[in-house]
Amino acid sequence: MTRIRRASQTSEEKQPGEGELIEAVPLPTPLPKTQLAILLLVQMPEQLTASVIYPFVNQLVRSTGITGGDERKTGYYAGLIESLYYAAEAVTILQWGRVSDHIGRKPIILVGLFGVTLSIVSFGFSNQFWMIILSRCAQGALNGNIGVVKSTMTEITDASNVAQAFAWLPLAWGTGYTLGLLIGGVLSDPAAKWPNVVGRYPLFHRYPYFLPCIVAASVSTFSWFISLVFLKESRRGSAFRNGSVSHSDDTVVRAVTIHDKPADTQIDIPPHMLDDAEISVPVSSSIESSRTDFRAILIPSIIIPVLHYGLLSFVDQCMLVLMPLMYSTSSSLGGLGFSSNTIGLVMSAWGTLNGVIQVYMFPRLLRKLGPKRLYITSFAFYLITFSTYPLMGYMVKRKMEAGMWLILCVQLVAYIVAYNTYSCIILYINNGTPSKNLLGATNGLAQMLGSVMRAIGPIAVSSLFALSLEKNLLGGTAIYWIMCTIVILVLGFSTYLPKSLT
């Protein structure tokens, strides 16, 4: 890669052509707000359609009769539904990312939104277990947007504002998560809740969870139309192949025309020559520095963060599955006995606070602590989120309701802090990419591993939850201490992360 550096202008420095070179530092540039907002809108429906089922999935599983009336077995089947979504996503998401490297980001984003819409509508019409499974698998297979959106965000930003841009991602996730939980909790089984209004229509008696699913689909449809009309293609590989450089609208680059030089050559450019000319990078240099060989991303600077992303995805997915599962389990079995309405409200309150706080908290904490210390510190808060479950169950059994709600608030606050880990590890992954032409493949690889771990997480944690109750392991709390042990092991592995973003 050709590196352009600027000579010093002081009298104590050497003259142009002989002078000492100093590396150019990118000036802070404003965020491309319109395009960033559209990308956040694109990301929201995935989290919304994934979370809309959480408030009622356990009730839905029981209504199919698959558990044979044994409430303790609910976790096995609910976990299978949640796992298969991510298993299907894992099979396809890397390919979506690689295809986006060749045909562009926008077509893949539109296909993903369309697939999410169809599959969640199908889920709403599912009242048998096999139909639920097929709909959930289709939703995972057709949606490859999360990796493509991250690639696009990296392409429309630069080193001076990329952290600020990625700090907004949790807000999109939190908003989608919050809306999904509210929609799923409030609108599930509407015929029973509003018999004199909605109960007049047989459709909602036959398909009690169709209404929240169709509302979720409408949000995805809206995002699809906005993306179709206003989203700009960010893929810049074609520009490089044509011998020119494409920049965001807010970036001004000044330099001189550079003649063909071998890759990794430093070029001395006097200060007076950097005033008025536009930059033109030769085709030979740009092609050499933008290899599209997939093996180019199998390097430590990518593999280590990608492995961490997979481990983080596993731990976080286990937490997300345990929340509605433990909250909905009867108090006699160590749960909280919450209704779907209460579950939706509690989890959506967390989602709202998480999204808003991350926008303001993450950039400041990143500057103060650095990526590695922030990642390790934030990940340690998962110990609090898992260890508070048995404490809440204990208080419910002892009729200590006020204490239970206090501990629940502590858990939700700890979970907000733990969520900083996502933005940290995303920056590590994108920063380690050797070429922007490989961003789609890099994020696709990360999302593939993340999806594999999210597929393992629900079935593993829900099965262990059910097994802990059936065998009364450690008083039915064994699953929580197993998760705390896993968190400690991941914290040990995080010492291999680089200290800084280079």
Structural topology:
Blueprint: E1 3-7, E2 21-23, H1 33-51, H2 57-63, H3 74-103, H4 105-124, H5 129-142, H6 145-155, H7 162-166, H8 169-187, H9 190-193, H10 202-206, H11 210-230, H12 237-241, E3 266-269, H13 283-288, H14 300-328, H15 340-369, H16 371-380, H17 382-397, H18 401-418, H19 420-431, H20 439-470, H21 478-493
Helix pairs in contact: 1-4, 1-6, 1-8, 1-11, 2-3, 3-4, 3-5, 3-20, 4-5, 4-6, 4-11, 6-20, 8-11, 8-15, 14-17, 14-19, 14-20, 14-21, 15-16, 15-18, 16-19, 17-18, 17-21
Taking the sheet with the most strands, its summary is:
3 strands, mixed
Low-confidence stretches: 1-25, 237-292
Measure the end-to-end span.
16 Å
The helix/strand series, from N terminus to C terminus, equals EEHHHHHHHHHHHHEHHHHHHHHH
Say what the CATH topology of the largest domain is. Growth Hormone, Chain: A
Provide structural commentary.
Helix content is about 65%, strand content about 0%. The protein has about 500 residues and is mainly alpha-helical. It has helices spanning about 35-50, 55-65, 75-105, 105-125, 130-140, 145-155, 160-165, 170-185, 190-195, 200-205, 210-230, 235-240, 285-290, 300-330, 340-370, 370-380, 380-395, 400-420, 420-430, 440-470, 480-495; strands at about 5, 20-25, 265-270. It has a three-stranded mixed beta sheet, with no helix packed on it. It starts with a strand and ends in a 9-residue tail after the last helix.
Quick tags:
single chain; 502 residues; mainly alpha; Growth Hormone, Chain: A; 2 domains; 3-stranded mixed beta sheet; 66% helix; disordered N terminus
